[in-house]
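[step 3/7] inverse_fold.run input=structure_tokens len=451
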């Protein structure tokens, strides 16, 4: 399918960087369209002198140097096989050999050499430049050894004007890593950053029209306006609202359309997809941004400090003129969090819809999937004993019950305690019942004995 041509100003900014051999950075919160922009760029420049290689860093088999090089070389081979109709004889065979050297090296020292050789063969065989479009780069960038980033910089300098990088992350690279060893890589994109924010209303309507056309339905103006106001231009929320609206509203008699929109709003409040999108956005804000945003819900724009206001507007969380939250779905999410912060009393509470945990009225840091499963299991039997067999089945699955790995359970209990207990060495909420299991206590006594 042809790409949807959205964010033309952002597209042209990145395309101009590519044409001049300059690296750049695309910055935007979760599901705001970074991947769409990079894929659009790759599709619209196919067949030109530039070879654009789209690399989904989520496809890395491990967040390691070898995992990164493997993902890039795999994407390079797939791109050339698909887009270069007259690839020079032997190039794909050379790249396959470099790939094997990278994934099955006789020595780990050969891993970067295999990658560098692949880049060299590509430039020897093809005219023009090559651009690596590094999508979902944040986790990889956090984990990679600095030598990988220095190698990328060295290759950029060696093939100056012919090799460039486009990175897509939720935060600027300089905020993800601050160590001096990656400064040379930072320099490549420092002066070429593009913040996405949310879609403009015209772009949001283009995306909605594309979606409804593919579904074979036609929305009226009230329905299109409803989706815009609910999503505020966030693509993920837009598609979630549109999907529910199509399921519940389209085809109903005009007399019942308004009732249908009310029902869609209720379903959106319960929608796991919409809730997940809001949670992802929230978690990508700093603690200070979250705190001031919660205050803003009650106090208004005058309560926001200027740096936080500017940062939230740059990210698209707040609009300008007037200052407000970008869409009704996210605004409702923040209001619920604010009420929760004010209403949750002392003790431990789980907001199942939001996936949030509160201890003594304070939200906890994000739990891992296993930590959250464990807490859900204990919370489902609040004040009651949970033995190791119940915990093993609920957290890891039925096939794990007979393995009896007490150490693994104890390690997970310890990790959870570090997040929910004021003093993990003297647990008050997650207590051990010696020889029998564990218990989650809602309103703990002054002291509990732990094993």
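[step 3/7] decode complete -> sequence:
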């Amino acid at each position: 399918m042809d790409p949807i041509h959205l964010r033309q100003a952002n597209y042209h900014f990145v395309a101009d960087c590519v044409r001049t051999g300059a690296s750049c950075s695309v910055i935007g919160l979760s599901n705001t369209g970074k991947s769409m922009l990079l894929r659009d760029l790759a599709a619209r420049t196919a067949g030109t002198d530039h070879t654009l290689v789209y690399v989904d860093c989520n496809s890395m088999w491990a967040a390691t140097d070898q995992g990164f090089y493997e993902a890039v070389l795999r994407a390079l081979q797939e791109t050339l096989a698909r887009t270069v109709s007259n690839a020079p004889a032997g190039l794909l065979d050379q790249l396959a050999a470099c790939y094997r050297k990278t994934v099955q090296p006789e020595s780990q020292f050969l891993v970067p050499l295999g990658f560098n050789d692949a880049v060299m063969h590509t430039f020897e065989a093809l005219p023009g430049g090559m651009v690596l479009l590094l999508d979902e780069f944040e986790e990889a960038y956090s984990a990679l050894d600095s030598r990988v980033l220095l190698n990328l910089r060295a290759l950029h300098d060696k093939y100056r004007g012919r090799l460039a990088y486009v990175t897509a992350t939720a935060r600027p690279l300089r905020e993800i890593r601050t160590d001096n060893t990656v400064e040379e890589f930072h320099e490549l994109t420092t002066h070429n950053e593009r913040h996405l924010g949310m879609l403009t209303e015209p772009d949001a309507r283009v995306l909605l029209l594309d979606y409804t056309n593919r579904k074979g339905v036609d929305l009226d103006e009230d329905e299109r306006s409803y989706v815009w106001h609910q999503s505020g231009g966030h693509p993920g929320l837009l598609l979630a609202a549109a999907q529910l609206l199509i399921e519940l509203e389209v085809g109903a008699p005009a007399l019942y359309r308004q009732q249908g929109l009310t029902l869609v709003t209720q379903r959106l409040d319960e929608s796991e997809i919409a809730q997940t999108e809001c949670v992802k956005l929230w978690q990508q804000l700093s603690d200070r941004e979250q705190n001031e945003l919660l205050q803003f819900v009650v106090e208004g724009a005058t309560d926001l400090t200027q740096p936080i206001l500017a940062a939230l507007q740059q990210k698209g969380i707040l609009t300008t003129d007037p200052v407000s939250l970008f869409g009704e779905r996210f605004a409702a999410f923040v209001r619920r969090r604010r009420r929760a912060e004010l209403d949750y009393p002392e003790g431990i509470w789980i907001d199942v819809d939001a996936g949030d945990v509160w201890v003594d009225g304070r939200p906890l840091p994000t739990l891992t999937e296993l930590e959250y499963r464990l807490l859900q299991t204990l919370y489902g039997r609040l004040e009651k004993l949970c033995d190791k067999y119940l915990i093993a089945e609920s957290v890891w699955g039925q096939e794990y019950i007979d393995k009896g790995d007490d150490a693994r359970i104890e390690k997970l209990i310890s990790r959870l305690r570090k997040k929910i207990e004021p003093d993990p060495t003297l647990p008050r909420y997650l207590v051990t019942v010696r020889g029998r299991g564990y218990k989650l206590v809602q309103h703990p006594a002054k002291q509990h004995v732990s094993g």
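[step 4/7] annotate
Confidence is low (pLDDT under 50) at residues 446-451.
The two ends are 60 Å apart (CA to CA).
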